Amino acid sequence: MTKTALVTGAARGIGLATTRLLLEAGWRVAMIDRDAPELEAACAGLDGAQAFICDVSEPEAVEAMVAEVQAAFGSIDALVNNAGVADFGPIAETDFARWRRVMATNLDGVFLVSQACAPALQAAKGAIVNIASISGLRASTLRVAYGTSKAAVIQLTKQQAAELGEYGVRVNCVCPGPVRTKLAMAVHSQEIIDAYHDAIPLNRYGSEQEIAEVIVFLCSEKASYVTGQIIAADGGFESTGVGLP
Ligand code: NAD
C-alpha cells in the first residue's frame, strides 16, 4: 500500500527537496506550509502531493490540518518536522518577542505536529524525522534563540524515541550543516560563508538534495532498526571543533 508522509515547511528549500525525493520513492506527500502562494506553486504538478496551508505554531490549526490530512490520505506513515525560521542576533538584542518567534516555529511546531500525528503514526508503526541543525550541537555567537531551539529539538527527539518506541514508532533527528536556502542566505554574511568553507572538511555548503537523502532514508524501512539518533549531514563540520564568527 502507498505510504503517506507529512512534510512541514514543504514550500521550498530542504522541505521541497524532501517532498520530491519521497514522491520519487513512491510515497504520497502532504505538503504543509504557512506561505500559501509559495506552497501552492511548489505543489502544482507534483503527482501524489497535496498542499495543506498551516502555521505549525498554532495548536488549533495543527489539529485541524492533521485531521484534514488523515481524511485525504487515510494514514500518516512518516512525519518530517522541517518547518523552521532563522534568527541571528546577540543576546542583548534578543527581546522576548524575538525569542518567542523562534521557539514558536522551531520548537513548539515540532511538539504540536508530532503530538497531533502520534495516534496515526502509532497505528502505522511509522517514523518521525525532526530537522534540527549543527547550531543545536555546537554554540557559536549570534545563535542564542536559534541554537537553543535546535538543541531542544535534539532532546525532544530522544524523548519521543524513548516514549514512542513501544508503539513501533521510530524517531530520529537530522542536523544539517549550511545549505544555500532562503533561510540561510538571509542571515549568512560573507564572513560566515567564508568561515564555513574553511571550517567544513569538505570545504563547501551542502545541497537540499544531500540533506533530503538522509531524511528519506530515515523515513524508510531501510532504517527499521534506527531510532533516537542525531545525525549530522554537515560535510564533517561538527566533528572538527573549528569555530565560527
Ligand atoms: P526555507 O526558509 O527555505 O524553508 C522553510 C520553510 O518553512 C518555508 O517554506 C517557510 O514558509 C516554512 N515555515 C516557516 N515557519 C513556518 C510555520 N510556523 N508554519 C509552517 N511553515 C513554516 O529553509 P530551509 O533552509 O529549507 O530550512 C528547513 C529546515 O532546515 C529548518 O528547520 C532549518 O532550521 C533547518 N536547517 C537549515 C539549514 C540551512 O543552512 N539552510 C541548516 C541547518 C538547519
Automatic annotation (TrEMBL):
Xref: InterPro entries: KR_dom, NAD(P)-bd_dom_sf, Sc_DH/Rdtase_CS, SDR_fam
Family: Belongs to the short-chain dehydrogenases/reductases (SDR) family.
SMART domains: PKS_KR
Lineage: superkingdom: Bacteria
Gene3D superfamilies (UniProt xref): NAD(P)-binding Rossmann-like Domain
SUPFAM superfamilies with a match to the protein in the record: NAD(P)-binding Rossmann-fold domains (SSF51735)
GO molecular function, one term: oxidoreductase activity, acting on the CH-OH group of donors, NAD or NADP as acceptor
Protein name: 3-oxoacyl-ACP reductase
Pfam family, one: adh_short_C2
All copies of domain Ketoreductase, residue ranges: 3-182
Single biological process term from Gene Ontology: fatty acid elongation
